Amino acid sequence: MSDFENKPAWFDGKYVLLKDANINIRTHALQYGTAFFGGLRAYYNKNKNNLYLLRLEDHHTRLRQSARILQMHWAMPYDEFRDITVNLLRQGEWRQNCYLRPFIYKSELTMSPRLHNVEDKFALYAIPLDDYLDTKRGLKAAVSSWVRISDNQIPARAKASGGYINSALAKSEALENGFDEAIFLDQRGFVSEGSAENIFIVRNGRLITPGIASAILEGITRRTVLSMAKDMGIECEERDVSRTELYTADEVFFSGTGAQIAWIESIDRRKIGDGSIGPITRKLQDTFFRFAAGEIEQYMHWLTPVY
Ligand code: PMP
To answer: What is the pLDDT of residue 1?
Structure first.
């Protein structure tokens, strides 16, 4: 059993050991995918001997929005959410990079795939995590044969558990075909996002990312990238992106809590730019890792120190 299994998780309104945070197999969320989650990171800075949670309040806001979409009762105020999260890391004596998963799920043991009048519960756990996608080498991505689910089917904005079947289909297809990650097109045929990350392209010095109508999850890292780029004086566009813009882009990268900023070397075996990390991606990636470790004064307001 891994070490972190003996660290605390928040379950049923109290801290228990992660290994003891288990649910009944009849749980509604397990039968029907009626849950939603967040994913946030805390970065450890050895010199400062501190752990920093990234954009905690933004994650809380997004969870509250998901709750509304999925007709969940969960209405935990930010202060309570922050305290549970910070105390979970303190009690677990976390001093390494980690990933936290807040999870709100329909907890009743009822049969009927509905949203209304079903009880829900909140859980939270942490696992150790460095790179999710390799950030040091270029990734090989492929446009998926699976299409991104639209807002009128399973809204990506809700970060609903059941919606991740769509991601899983695309991710497995990509990996089993020898690629590192999938890129979804939306129902109109425009570029949407990766299986668990947003996507950016650079063309002629401009940073471009699909708009929120392209069936994307409104990524918090995406927002961070846009802010950092604007602060660097880079012009940014949120708009529809055509598939062939991927092939002709100077740079392409993924953004996400798990993915961080991960650059793409080829898409559908077509080399992007000269096949190495581009200057804008490099600058954004470098700034991202420094701010996440609490090294940039200007962005300290995005961090919640644990100790
Ligand atoms: N899209 C999807 C489908 C995701 O699962 C994620 C990861 N949460 C993202 C985008 C990136 O969002 P964020 O930057 O908020 O982690």
So the answer is: 67
198 lines ligand 1 (CB under 6 A): yes
The domains of the chain, with CATH numbers, are: 3-128 (3.30.470.10), 139-292 (3.20.10.10)
Query: In the predicted model, is pLDDT for residue 2 greater than 90?
Result: no
**Does the Cβ of 38 fall within 6 Å of ligand 1?**
no
Q: Is the dihedral of CA 262, 39, 16, 304 positive or negative?
A: positive
Ligand 1 lined by 181 (C-beta under 6 Å):
no
- The residue type found at 69 is I
Across 59-76, average pLDDT? 97
Q: Which of ligand 1's atoms lies nearest the C-alpha of 220?
A: 15
Residue nearest to atom 2 of ligand 1 (CA): 196
Q: Please choose from 36, 157, 184, 217 the residue to mutate so as to test ligand 1's pocket, defined by most ligand atoms within 8 A of CB.
A: 217
Element (H, E) at 62: helix 56-69
Going by C-beta distance under 8 Å and a sequence separation of 6 or more, which residues neighbour residue 277?
138, 251, 263, 285
Ligand 1, atom 5, lies closest to the CA of 196
Ligand 1 atom closest to Cα of 198?
A: 10
Q: What is the pTM of this model?
A: 0.97
What pLDDT band is residue 36 in, cutting at 50, 70 and 90? very high
Q: Whose CA is nearest to atom 9 of ligand 1?
A: 197
pLDDT digits 0-9 by tens, 97-125? 999 999 999 999 999 999 999 999 999 99
- Say how far apart CA 4 and CA 179 lie, in whole Å: 30
Q: Do 67 and 146 form a contact (C-beta atoms < 8 A)?
A: no
Name the residue among 267, 205, 266 with its Cα closest to residue 237. 205
Q: Mean pLDDT over residues 42-52, rounded?
A: 97
Q: Is 107 in the pocket of ligand 1 (CB under 6 A)?
A: no
Predicted confidence (pLDDT) per residue in 236-252, tens digit: 999 999 999 999 999 99
